[in-house]
Amino acid sequence: MSGRRPGGARRRPMLALVAALSGVLAGALPVGWPGAPGPAAAADAVAPAIRVLIDQVSPSVLRPGQDLTVVATLRNEGAAPVENATAGLQLYRMRPASRTELESWVTGAGGAVGTRVASQPALTIPAGGQVQVALTLPAARVGLLDQPDVWGPRGLAVEVIGSNGRRLGVQRTFALWQPDEAVAQVRVSLLAPVTGVAPGASATDPASPADEDALVRAVEPGGRLDALLTLAAADRDVELAVDPSLLAAATAAGGRPAAWAAGMSQALTLRSGLALPWGDPDLAAVAHAGTPDLLTAAIGLSTATGLGGAPARTDVLWAPGATVDRSTVAAAAAVGAQGLVVGSDTLQATDAVTTARTDVVTDSGRVAALVPDRLLTQLFVAPDRVEPGATLATTVQRLLAEIAVLAHDGAPGTHGVLIAPDRDWTPSTQLVTALMSALRAAPWSRVVPVSALLGGADEGTEREPLPQSATSGAELSPDEVRSLAGTRADTLAFATAIADQGILTAGLDQQVVAPLSVAWRADPAGRSRLVRAVVADTQSERAGLSLAPAPDLNVISASAPVRFVVRNDLSVPATVSVRVLPRKACLRPVHSDPVVAEPGASSPITVNLVAAANCDVVVDVQLVGVDGLGVGQGVQFTARVAPTIEDVGTVVVGALLAIGMLLGIVRTVRRGQSVRRGARRADEDAPPLPVLGGEVPAARDGGDA
Question: Is the pLDDT of residue 694 over 70?
């Protein structure tokens, strides 16, 4: 019901004036947010004799015409009984304008407790005992205006006063006022990480008994993974960011882990899910080592596998730790990530308005950073850290009060906030479902998936800058990460030499990314052992192809054949060739034709060495696959190069003669013919030419002598 009286529309101008005057007067009077501590503030800081626990605020969002009822438990934690005490319901009617003022009310920093609007006197509470009271504020005495833009939180408290007038205990919370009108909404997303225990104590046995025991403990009642599954089944609006390798490991383990995996897969079919890169690799460690191929491989595995057999979005990454640096964000952009969930100490807003999305431009591209709201996340994780002594009822009211203030700060439909607990979160289903239900019911909030936040725009919130470098002592060292990347690259190159590459590459990426898991931050020593085991294991798989040692030799001609022998200890044929790389220019580099080395046999490969000058030279010989990458341990030998004079001289003299002949022809053509060289034509009347060495004959009659 609206609760409006007949003729209310005609009274609105007058009520608006009253509201404005109330605001002016309120500015002239002491108020509770913010302000210096008043006389009652000291009482809030003193350990109370009575602990007040607000069990219920009904309705959670109060509308005109509704009564407000608050149920509280009063617990006497003192050694003496309390007699003739009074429980009072206090309402502070000024609307807080910021989240800072909300905090001021909860802590009692301003000293105000509002006006008493209901009470229950003559209470007796025995030592160590408790009583429950219900305090009701009738609708007629609420005293809040039914006007536009007055919706939102108001201070609410239950206070216990002793017979001497001294405060014995108090708990503060909020009433949430909502007149009958449309309001701005904040988009809220809850993203829960579903990641596993350290993925393996050894490369050869990733499902070792110790790891399987840890997985079983996590899926048993009370375990972290069991709590996440219970929450996922209870509330479909809880979005999940899942490591697909966890589902695979649980399925393979059988028993209770397999049942958990089946339940989680079923829960994922009822919602949009995000697939983290396979094994949940430490994005910061990969970024600091400069090895994006490892992250690309992990994303590729998740893309191919999906979640529970269903496709899932793989372009949202989750950085480890509270602080994320610029290189880590750049690494996410380099592999094509559209979104990156950052830590709670990164890109925090410098003003009162907290929003989720902010675009970060790096040298590798642009990525949308999703910044969790620190306080709202804590309300879902550990509300008593936000408000000591918080109850389920006060946590719900605080959450809605925070969202209402955010909604007041922004234009309709613009604000978006993210709630994202850390990877070690063991959720309370009762708490989370109550908070999610409150968000769905409140007029100023709307629960949306993370994709809705990514689909929005950067709201321009002023933020702290990203640090250039922020490393954690728990992350894998760059050298260890590079060793994993190097052994992967070597194995992939080696596989190109054999027809059935899957023999070597099947499971390679899963094996190499396993030590990168964020879960291994809890056991750095075990992680280092795993890195060494992975590198040694992959190296042993590449030991099947080798070159026989090559003896030193003499090259006494311009071209000389040299025979090498390749040994194939693999179970399949391999296509290889030999690359000869002299360290001096007197011997030219050469590359042999490929040959097929049969399994379990030695195969010869002949290479023609070409000499250009006399020298002694060290020669490196590599065994390479079809793509030219090394596939086995190389060998080295020394060559004494002394091509014969005939071989070298013939080539040189022949070249000089050819050049001389060419120059002679060119010179003759350029000089042309002369009177003393070449053919000549005599005139018919001219005297005949003399015989060579003779005299000129007499002239004809009529001619000149």
Answer: no
**Residue whose C-alpha is closest to residue 44's, from 143, 124, 155:** 155
Sign of CA dihedral 54, 56, 62, 68: negative
Q: What is the largest CA-CA distance in the chain?
A: 173
CB contact at 8 A, 517 and 286: no
Q: Which value, in Å, is the radius of gyration of the alpha carbons in the chain? A: 43
Q: How many CA atoms lie within 13 A of 150 on its CB side?
A: 20
Q: Are 536 and 583 in contact (CB under 8 A)?
A: no
Q: How far is CA 84 from the centre of its chain?
A: 59
Residue written as token pair 């429950």? 132
Summarised one tens digit per residue, pLDDT across range 235-263 is: 999 999 999 999 999 999 999 999 999 99
Kindly report the three-state secondary structure assignment for every residue of 285-354: HHHHHCCHHHHHHHHHHHHHHCECCECCECCEEECCCCCCCHHHHHHHHHCCCCEEECCCCCCCECCCCC
Closest among 118, 112, 214, 84 to 172, alpha carbons compared: 112
Q: The tokens of 233 are what?
A: 């089944």
CB distance 67 to 135 below 8 Å: no
Rounded distance between C-alpha atoms, residue 226 and residue 238, angstroms: 15
3 state DSSP class of 259? helix
Q: Which residues contact 700 (CB under 8 A, 6 or more apart)?
A: 685, 687
For 252, the token pair is: 């393979």
Question: CA-CA distance, 508 to 101, in Å (whole number)?
Answer: 55
**Going by C-beta distance under 8 Å and a sequence separation of 6 or more, which residues neighbour residue 116?**
88, 89, 90, 159
Q: Which residue has the tokens 């210096």?
A: 36
The DSSP symbol for 488 reads H
CA distances from residue 95 to 25, 99, 105, 147, 583 in whole angstroms, order as listed:
14, 11, 11, 13, 82
Which two three-digit tokens encode residue 392? 């389920």
Q: pLDDT digit string (tens) for 536-553?
A: 988 887 778 888 888 888
50 DSSP β-pair partners: 76
pTM listed for this prediction: 0.79
